[in-house]
Prior knowledge:
The complex is a heterodimer of chains A (333) and B (209). Chain A has 333 residues and is of the alpha/beta class. Chain A has helices at 5-10, 14-24, 27-30, 41-51, 70-86, 98-111, 129-133, 139-148, 176-183, 187-190, 204-208, 227-238, 248-254, 256-259, 269-282, 291-319, 322-325; strands at 59-64, 91-95, 119-123, 157-162, 167-172, 217-222, 242-246, 266-268. The longest helix of chain A has 29 residues, at 291-319. Chain B has 209 residues and is mainly α. Helix content of chain B is 76%, strand content 0%. Chain B is built from 6 helices and no strands. The two termini of chain B are 21 Å apart. At the A-B interface, helix 2, helix 5, helix 6, helix 9 and helix 12 of A face helix 2, helix 4 and helix 6 of B.
Amino acid sequence: MKENIWGRMLNLDRRWIFLFIGVVCIVPFFVPFGLPVIPTRHVISIFDYIEELGPENAIFVSFDFDPGTDPENMPMAVAITRHAFARHIPVFFTANGPLAQGMLESGFAYITNPLSEGYFHVVSWSEWASYREMGITDRSELEAAWEADGHVLPDNAAGWVFEGRDFAKLGYLPYFSLVILGMTSSIAAQYPEDMNGNPLVEMPMLQEHKNLREVDLATTFSGTAACTWWITFGREKIGLPVAFGVTAVSATDYTIFIQSGQIVGQMGGLRGAAEYEVLLQQRGYFDKPDRAFVGMDVQNAAHLLILFFIVLGNIAYFAGGFHKKGVLLKGRR
Amino acid sequence: MYETIGIWVAAMFTLAIYSFLYKENPLYRLGEHLAVGISTGYFIVLTYTQVLKPRLIDPVFQESQWILLFPAVLGLLYVTRFFPKIAWLSRYPMAFIMGTSMGVGFPLSMKASVLRQLEATILPLYQPGMPWQDLAGNIVLVFGTLAALIYFFFSKPHKGLFFGTGSKIGVWVIMIGFGATFGFTVMGRISLLIGRVQFLLKDWLGVIH
C-alpha cells in the first residue's frame, strides 16, 4: 500500500524523534530562555520547616538512590544539605545501598569542592581534636575559636563545616529498613563508626541526638519505594517528621502521603529540585541557583517538542482517516 | 590526572550507551555489561569492608565474640542453594528473614499505607472558612475515589445511573491519573538525559559553565 503524507508521519522513524530531542536538549544550554521557576507549596513547606531549625536540632539526609536517578535526586539532596549547612543544622548522612553510598560520596564532594560555587569548607574530625580536648564543642564557640587561631575562610566558601559537629557520614548498612527501626532506639548501636572510621559516640552531634526520637526531620531522596521505609519505621513508629525527594516518575505514587499529612512536603523530579534552589536564592542563602535550575530551560524546551509531536501525531491520525480504518499502516494498531 | 581519565571514560561510555538509540551495537553491549559487572563488584567490596569485616570478622577473631558465628552460619546456609542434596537448608535463613520482616513490618506497613490513607479519605467535604480550592479538592478526592472503585466492581453490570455513570466517571478519573503519571514519566526521562548532556557539555567538553 502506498503511504500518503499522514501515513508517513505516523510511521516516522523514531530515530528522527531521538535526534530532535537530542538537539533540543543541547541548544538551551547555549541560548537560555530564562523561563521562571515558581516554587510550589509542597516544596515551600519543606523549606519553611528547615528554616525553623538551627544548631540545636538535627536532620537526616538519606541518599536512597543509585546512579540511574542521579540527575533528578542529586540536586535535591545537594540543595537540602546546603540549606542545612548554611543554618548550621547538624546533618546525618545515610544511604540505603552500596551504590547509594557512592552517590553520598559524590554529592558531599560536590558540596565541599572549592571549585563549586558557595562550597562549604570541611574541617575533618582529626583537625579539630585539640578543640574537643579543651571542651569546645558548641557550634558558635567552635567556629570563633577556630578562626581566632588564624584559620581564614576562603573567599568563595559559604562557611565551615566541622565533622562530628555539623555532619556525620554514616553510610550504608544492609536491610536498611531495619536499620531505620534500630535507629529509633540508638543511632550508635547501628553505626558504631562513621564511613571514615571515626567513633560516633564521641561526636558532639550524636551526644545531643542519640536516636531518631531526638532528630527533627528525615529527608529521603529516592527513585524507589525505599522512601516509604522512613514513613513506615520512622513516621508511624515514633512520629519522626519526614520529607520526600522523589523522581518524577514516582511523584504521583507518593503524593498520597502529602494528602494524608504523613510527610512535611515533597520535591518531585528535577522541577522540585529547581524550586528548592530558587527558594535558596530568593531567601538570600546563595547568589544564584544550581544545576537543577539550569536544566529547567532544557526541560521546558523538550516538553514543548513532545507536545508538538503528540499534536502532530493526532492530526495525522484523524486527518489520514485512521480512526475509521482502525488499522495503521505496516500492521500497527 | 585520574579525574580527567575518569571523565573521559565516563563520557565514552555515555556515548556508547546512547549509541543504542541508533541501533544495537557491540559498544552498547560492552557498556551495558560493564555497568552490571562493576556495580556487582562495587557491591561486594563495600559489603565486605563496611559490613562483614567490621561487624563479623574483626569482632570474632580479634574480640572473640563467638556468638556472632550463629548468625554467620545461618547466613551461610543460603549458599546451600547451589547443592541440590542439601538445598533445603537454605529455607531456614529465608524463613528467619521472612518471619522477622513480616513481624516487624506488617503492623507498621498496614498503619502507614492503608489505615492512614483510609483516614485521609474520610473527611468532611466542607468546613466553615475553608478555601474554595480545598473544597473542590475534597469533592474530587472523595467522588473520584468512589468512581474509580465502582469501575473495579465487577459483581454488577456497569449499567444504570449508579454503576453505569459511576464506572464511566471512574474511567475518566483513572485516565487522568495515568496522564499525570505519563507527564511525570516524560519529565523524569528528559531529566536523566539533561543530566548526561550537562556532564558531557560541562565536565567533559567544558563548553558550558
